[in-house]
Design a protein that fits this description.
Layout (H helix, E strand, L loop, with lengths): L1 E18 L10 E25 L3 E25 L10 E24 L3 E24 L2 E4 L5 E19 L4 E18 L4 E19 L4 E12 L3 H4 L3 E5 L2 E4 L7 E12 L3 E21 L4 E24 L4 E18 L2 E20 L3 E10 L2 E3 L2 E3 L2 E12 L2 E8 L7 E7 L2 E7 L5 E8 L17 H6 L2
Parallel strand pairs: 12-15
Antiparallel strand pairs: 1-2, 2-3, 3-4, 4-5, 5-6, 5-7, 7-8, 8-9, 9-10, 10-13, 11-12, 13-14, 14-15, 15-16, 16-17, 17-18, 18-21, 19-20, 20-23, 21-22, 22-25, 23-24
Length: 478
């Protein structure tokens, strides 16, 4: 039996100023908005696991999961309008929202493995899951100290999803040099998104096969090669399917998309290893119906909103090299260099998108063994400009530092992220009629100290670590 959970709350307080110009008829030139928002959550997971060892090096296991997730959110967004001379005669827009979300997940899976035909490995399994979400948004504006419900934006949205899957996998080690694996997973999905307020439904049913295969060849003691292929599905997070709106200000907000489809990726990888220390990896991923955040404009309402849509074709090519360099007996340098080329081609409401970008990322981590049983780690990272969907992201870099010391059963660790406080995020979107530049800076320089103490009988058997039936579903609940 495994029971786990978490509960908590958070609140944010933000201020946004927007300058307005160009061809528009509003009697003001500037908008200032203050946003106070927060949420609280209570999440519990209950898991039952049964495992039986079998003859022929086999095993059989069952997992049953029940997950409950409750979340409440609120937002207070006050918009004031100004002319160059002072406050406009336009009445302020004072938004008040309350959202209640409940997610229930039930998942059951059974896995079977054994050796067949002498030395072939067989793995097979079944899995079924059901997810039910209920989201209720109460959208109000404050007028003359009275809350007035906005029926056009208030909404209740329910989403139900059933997934049934089966998989089969065969593997064999032919000799000390060559091994291979091949398998297939079949999935049937039925989902139903229903807006109670609008009485509109988005229903889907689809069946897919997901093959996978890999081969590995050890050329000699120093060189080895492997190749793999897999096809996978990534489903939307439940928040992305929810059509509710979250305000930044009168002209800018975020909205979910109940008509969002899952994305499908074919992934190829070629790996080379030298002395099990230096690794070179080449990857090619092609994603269809790629789930991507986009910006859309409503000319009549003079609004821009962010949502998630499916774009037609996205491709990713990358090469990565990772190597530890023991420079001295007390200094080890780990280097990681990745170059990648992204392309995206699609049509959507703001016109055709056809973008490509070569980027690279370099990471160096030095580990120092110092006198007095101290250990010091220094890490530097640089990422060049890159393409993410329709968003062009500018370069980022930072330096981190950490030190640790063991005192018997007591271990002390201290670290500082982004020592020089230079990490930020700058994004450009130039697509159709949209020309947007966004720069945000968050609290990236953070100091942490960790103390850990080991006590009791260290010969007691550790609890068996395992994945449960609902791991992937809980990730989609954020």
């Amino acid at each position: 039996m495994l029971v786990s959970g978490n509960l908590g709350d958070r609140e944010s307080d933000g201020f946004n100023r927007t300058a307005l110009g160009g061809f528009y008829t509003n009697p003001y030139d500037r908008l200032e908005a203050r946003d106070i928002s927060g949420n609280d959550w209570n999440n519990m997971t209950y898991n039952f696991n049964f495992q039986q060892d079998l003859d022929n090096n086999g095993s059989f296991s069952i997992d049953a999961d029940l997950v409950t997730w409750d979340k409440g959110s609120y937002q207070r967004n006050d918009n004031y309008f100004f002319t160059e001379e002072g406050r406009s005669s336009e009445d302020p827009l004072l938004v008040r929202t309350q959202t209640d979300t409940r997610i229930n997940i039930f998942a059951l899976k059974a896995d079977y493995s054994r050796t067949i035909l002498g030395d072939w490995g067989l793995e097979a399994g079944l899995k079924s899951s059901r997810v039910a979400t209920d989201n209720d948004l109460d959208f109000n504006t404050l007028e003359n100290e009275v809350l007035v419900n906005d029926t056009d934006r208030s909404n209740r949205f329910q989403y139900d999803e059933n997934i049934h899957a089966a998989y089969l996998n065969l593997s064999k080690k032919f000799n000390d040099q060559f091994s291979a694996q091949a398998g297939v997973r079949a999935e049937y999905t039925a989902s139903d998104g229903y807006s109670v307020t609008l009485d509109s439904t988005a229903q889907r049913q689809y069946f897919n096969l997901f093959p996978s295969a890999s081969v590995a060849y050890a050329i000699n003691d120093q060189h080895n090669l492997s190749f793999s292929y897999s096809r996978r599905i990534d489903r939307p997070n439940y928040d992305n399917l929810n059509p509710f709106e979250f305000f930044l200000d009168r002209f800018t907000f975020e909205r979910g998309n109940p008509f969002l489809n899952p994305q499908y990726t074919d992934a190829f990888a070629l790996n080379y290893g030298f002395k099990n220390a230096v690794f070179l990896t080449l990857n090619h991923n092609r994603t269809q119906d790629a789930m991507t955040q986009v910006l859309e404009q409503d000319e009549a309402g003079q609004t821009t909103y962010q949502t998630t849509m499916n774009l037609d074709d996205q491709r990713h090519y990358s090469a990565n090299i990772a190597a530890p360099l023991p420079l001295t007996s007390w200094w080890v340098l780990n280097l990681n260099l990745t170059g990648f080329y992204n392309t995206i081609t699609s049509s959507f409401s703001e016109g055709e998108v056809d973008k490509q970008q070569f980027s690279y990322m370099a990471r160096a981590q030095s580990s120092f063994s110092l006198p007095g049983d101290f250990k010091l780690e220094l890490m530097g990272m640089y990422m060049s400009p890159q393409l993410w969907g329709i968003f062009e992201i500018r370069e980022m870099y930072q330096v981190d530092l950490g030190v640790s010391k063991s005192l018997g059963k007591l271990k002390i660790q201290a670290s500082v992220d982004d020592i020089f406080n230079v990490r930020d995020n700058e994004v450009y979107v130039m697509q159709g009629d949209i020309n947007t530049k966004v720069r945000n800076k968050w609290e990236s320089r953070v100091f942490r100290i960790n103390l850990s103490y080991t006590f009791g009988n260290d010969k007691v058997k550790q609890a068996r670590r395992r994945n449960t039936a609902s791991d992937d579903l809980r990730q989609r609940a954020n």
